[in-house]
Amino acid sequence: MWSKEDKQINYDIFNKTYNEHGYSHDGLGWAKGKQAIRFDMLTEDFGLNTKGKDISILDIGCGFAQLGVFLKHKYKDTFIKYTGIETVASIYQEAVNQTQEYDFILLNDDFFDTKLSNFDICVASGIFNAKLSTDDNYNQIEQSMQKAFNLCNIGIAYDFLSDTASIQHEINHYASASEILKISQKLSKNVLLKHNYMPFEFSVIIFKDDSFKRETTLFQKYEREKNITDIYSIVL
Question: What's the CATH class of domain 4-233?
Answer without folding.
Answer: alpha beta
